[in-house]
Amino acid sequence: MKITNIISLSLICFAFGNLSAQNPWPKTTETAKPWTRWWWMGNAVDEKGLDKQLTTLNKAGFGGIEIVPIYGAKGFENQYINYLSPEWMKMLQFTTNKAKSLNMGVDMAVGTGWPIGGPQVSEEDAATKMIVQTYTISSGEKFSEKIVLNDEKLKNLKTIKLDIATAYNEKNEAVVLTDKITNEGSLNWKPDSGKWAIYAVFTGKTLQKVKRAAPGGEGYTLDHFSPVATVNYLKTFDKAFGNSNYGVRSFFNDSYEVYNADWTPDFKNEFKKRRGYDLSPYIKYLINNDENEITTRVKSDYRQTLSELILHNFADNFTNWAHSKNSKNTNQAHGSPGNLLDLYAAVDIPESETFGSSIFEIPGLRRDSADIQKSDMPDFNMLKFASSAANVTGKKLTSNETFTWLTEHFKTSWSQAKPEVEQVFLSGINHVFYHGTTYTPADVPFPGWLFYASVNFVPENSLWPHLKGLNSYIERTQSVLQSGKSDNELLMYWPIYDQWATPKGKDIAFKVHNVEKWLQPTPFYDDLKKLGKMGYSLDMISDKIISESKSENQKIQTGKEGSSYQVLIIPELTYLPETTLGDILKLAQNGALIIFQNEPKDVPGNFEVEKRRNQLKSLWNQILFQNQGENVKIASFGKGKIVLSSDVEKGLEYLKIQREKLTDTGLKFIRRQFDGGKYYYIVNHTSKEINQFVPINYTGKQTTIMNPENGDFGVAEMQNNSVRIQLKSGESLILKNSEAVESSISKWKYTEKADAPIILDQAWQLSFKEGGPELPKSRNLKKLEPWTNFSDDPATQSFSGTGIYTTTLNIKKNADDYLLKFDKLYESAKVIVNGQDAGIVWSIPFEINIGKYLKKGKNTIQIEVCNLMANRIRYMDQKKMVWRNYNEINFVNIDYKAFDASNWKVQPSGLDGEIQIIPLYWTK
């Protein structure tokens, strides 16, 4: 199939449409292009540097930037600018003005480094934790201790106060003593009998400060559970911004990485208001890890309260504030102890993140175990929390912090990035942010300023000349994935109360980095994996969003702008609120289809348990099930149906919900619906080539194949409800299935056969341009070899940049097309045939169609190869050249140890093995 033709005709077609045919690609916008996180180190920016780097980013195909100030480089302190100072706001205004002139967007973080906080966060508004001290007292004994905080780090803080004091005897009888303790800590109470344990809960502070803070951003981390703290924090931005948003599209909040924050000064009152009872008599059960019913119920209520506080006091206030500035907001909810679905849904752009490297079966895809995170591998079901929240609430964009720590520094190729970002797209994300780009002043030598956890999407990267290949691929793909609405047929309830009922610990943080603890061991996760592999598409839903949903036209409508769904699945669970069951039955009453994997066993929480249990049982007994064979029960309920089966697949089959059988081939997909049709984005991450008719559930009257790598398109060959697909391992395509017929679109060019390849085993010339530390000598080659093979020239071992391989050949041009196929390419190449730019080869399979550029007789082929930065960095470390000299963390390797490349092996660079030109013939 046609692979890459990005620089020349395809860009014209993509922007302006094929001159002879209706262009099926959606109109591109700045959001369709990839954006990048832009670190301002020390805020040491100036107008000249900002102008230059924005222009460079724009030319490389970026649609926008996200400003995140961080720590600075040593030796540049006199150029630092304080965050939100008038000078900083001037630089922001220049940035947004320049970006607007380039049709780029600008987002910015509401803080420096992470998590949010800064000098405006007072001790009172700082992240808060409970501190528990225990005492013993017996009848007849004098209690002479003072019940005061003993923590030396905190005891002098003005905000420390005793919140709760409760005594328990051997029978676990409780006496609340809070009002019997003086300000000095004296206890005015004596037990009548027995031995008692006193639990004293103090409001303490974590003392956590902003990590990687920039000048003017240093200070305490915010108390996300306090509405006063959030409002006070944002007042600093009100002062800096006034009535303007300074051209900022969206204000961004990074992932919740607030450690040990499990309390807030008004928690006790909020708990009683929200849960209906006083926490004070139960404080012992909150502190211990005993596996008993009261502990699980109290902890569930405690965790639910934390969730509601961060939702209403932080997320909602943050959104309202952004809207007051006529801007949007972006939030990474993961890492927090809240219900992720509700937190993501509360903002304009939910954002997830990927961290580490995935395993793919794609032959030739490099994954060196020495260069990847040992403990972190992205779990793309985790990303569905963010995309689900967007889909069910009708938000157009779901963003993702992409490529964080993909590999060791300076060893990431664009071919490695492609399948990773494809997994992101397949999870429902449609607005990727690279992680990322560091601002560098114009006079700073190679490699410029660099961030310690980045893939380094910087102009100094020796692969930069070919980044347009990756960026154009993402732009075309996202133009489709941002069109219309998601088209997932299933909703699955997230049983968060089963998570909250665990007796261990206090707060539970739902992190990207610990899914093996809270997500992967659950039946919910098993369903996600099984149904996805079978070809079903689904979104997740929370109790809150279920309560806001309606059943219309036999579909579940989750919001005015949200998607509609065919079935709601309640996975195997223990706890289900009676209110949620009531909401589910209302949906069924009005026509919805529901599948339960089991009967809910209990209600969560510790308030009026028996009353609510009876309500749950009463509601469940309204469902009059009848056996429908092994492991399937069915009940008509109002206008809808309810299925009870531990086997979700059987339940879906009974309800006649179609799966996409294309996944039986190993292909992965995601669908979007638009007025008059549907898109399928299809990816081949298997180890084999797919060349067959593949069934799809929706074909319309015309199916057009669209190649996101080069913009080609054509009408597909159909057979019944199947489309003919030719996809090599590592490739992807888009199907546009439309009810409208566009007769001007030509047929898709399928490769019917290939003649014996022409092996380019003749002599080549090798020369060099762009890069350093110095250009190697030009040379004539008897055969293709990487330039790093020529150790007689030391420059070849240290060079990072562009090497040019040139040869000539005679060809008898009689095939329909010719495919140039690389055996080994380190790492990407621009192909020039007879002086014409044929495109960039940057992803697996390393091949490109060049037939339109060849002629009969003599042809000249020039291949400009870019290699990794690694060899040059190795050289610099061997020579002990100073290139990393930053405040704070300075620069670390993938294991967070001091970075040193001096012992690295030389990375192969250039071309190796055979290059073939394969004559192709299309189906007539």
From TrEMBL:
One of its GO terms (biological process) is carbohydrate metabolic process. Keywords: Hydrolase, Signal. The keyword Hydrolase applies. The keyword Disulfide bond does not apply. Residues 1-21 form the signal peptide. GO terms for molecular function: hydrolase activity, hydrolyzing O-glycosyl compounds. Pfam families: Glyco_hydro_106 (PF17132). It comes from the Bacteria. NCBIfam families: rhamnoside_JR (NF045579). PANTHER family: DNA-BINDING PROTEIN (PUTATIVE SECRETED PROTEIN)-RELATED, SECRETED PROTEIN. This is Glycosyl hydrolases family 2, sugar binding domain. It comes from Chryseobacterium soldanellicola.
